[in-house]
């Protein structure tokens, strides 16, 4: 079943595709740049079926013959890349570091198995079904980028200049943002979440704040977050304040000898961030921050972090 979605015009030839499904996982925003018969996509949705919905919307606004020749991948999480197979022969541009993340992301088959083979009466199985059970990953093939870069990469779509800036490690090791200087639009990928707590996997939090400051320095009129509604710069400033507050709290509670899960419970019990959805994701972002505070350089254990989030969601759903 197709989700409700909007293809929002941000400037001539520049669109944001925003699926609307409330607070949940996996419904990522995508971008479209179309000029003089050339078409570029920014990210794909989570599954081939959802990507077909996006491509229908692309043809509606860019013309029935529109064929994206390039996809820019903001980072290698599945919810931004697992639709690529619907675009055979397309050039896939990503940072070189995005390949490193691709190695630790659970495969589509592993996620499919988590949805079906875990115990629904335990936190992880309950949580995964609730947030990922709507997706079918059985036929997904993970495609690597065909063009990689470090630092910065520039291209042109028709007459529209497009700048790619590497800003990772932040949300993952391989993040980039897409800047359209003439249209004053930044596609932020999962550096920025709107409306819900973000799950940051690579960190530390100061890198994510720094990436957000780089976005502000580009003086955009619109910021397209990886998930949630469009943002203006003032909303991005509020998000930076949230990230910095979270980092300060992690510092204090780590020094007090509390675990990351204990820190999450304290923040939730004092209702420190009212109005933000999916508060259990604090367990992921704080788990990541603690890994850095502990001096760890190992890659994140994504399944262990997800298990912590599920545990928090389970606890707070039964006490709500
Ligand atoms: Zn995402």
TrEMBL record:
It holds the Pfam family Lactamase_B. This is Metallo-beta-lactamase domain-containing protein. Signal peptide: none annotated. CDD domains: metallo-hydrolase-like_MBL-fold (cd16282). InterPro entries: Metallo-B-lactamas, NDM-1-like, RibonucZ/Hydroxyglut_hydro. It comes from Streptomyces xanthochromogenes. It comes from the Bacteria. Residues 27-227 form the Metallo-beta-lactamase domain. PANTHER family: ACYL-COENZYME A THIOESTERASE MBLAC2, METALLO-BETA-LACTAMASE DOMAIN-CONTAINING.
């Amino acid at each position: 079943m197709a989700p409700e979605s909007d293809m929002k015009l941000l400037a001539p030839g520049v669109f944001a595709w925003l699926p609307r499904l409330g607070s949940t996982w996996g419904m990522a925003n995508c971008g479209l740049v179309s000029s003089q018969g050339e078409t570029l996509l920014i990210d794909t949705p989570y599954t081939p079926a959802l990507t077909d919905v996006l491509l229908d919307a692309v043809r509606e606004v860019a013309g029935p013959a529109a064929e994206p020749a390039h996809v820019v991948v903001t980072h290698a999480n599945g919810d931004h890349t697992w639709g690529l197979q619907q675009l055979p022969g397309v050039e896939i541009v990503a940072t070189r570091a995005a390949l490193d993340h691709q190695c630790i992301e659970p495969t589509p088959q592993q996620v499919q198995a988590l949805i079906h083979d875990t115990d629904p009466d335990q936190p992880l199985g309950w949580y995964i079904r609730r947030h990922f059970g709507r997706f079918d990953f059985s036929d997904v093939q993970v495609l690597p980028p065909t063009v990689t870069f470090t630092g910065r990469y520039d291209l042109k779509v028709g007459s529209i200049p497009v700048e790619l800036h590497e800003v990772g490690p932040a949300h993952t090791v391989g993040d980039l943002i897409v800047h359209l200087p003439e249209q004053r639009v930044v596609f932020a990928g999962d550096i920025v979440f709107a409306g819900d707590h973000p799950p940051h996997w690579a960190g530390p939090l100061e890198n994510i704040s720094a990436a957000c400051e780089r976005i502000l320095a580009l003086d955009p009129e619109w910021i397209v977050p990886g998930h949630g509604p469009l943002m203006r710069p003032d909303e991005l400033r509020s998000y930076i304040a949230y990230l910095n507050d979270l980092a300060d709290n992690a510092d204090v509670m780590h020094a007090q000898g509390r675990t990351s899960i204990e820190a999450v419970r304290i923040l939730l019990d004092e209702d420190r961030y009212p109005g933000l959805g999916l508060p259990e994701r604090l367990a992921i972002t704080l788990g990541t921050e603690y890994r850095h505070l502990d001096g760890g350089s190992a890659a994140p254990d994504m399944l262990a972090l997800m298990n912590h989030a599920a545990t928090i969601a389970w606890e707070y759903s039964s006490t709500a």
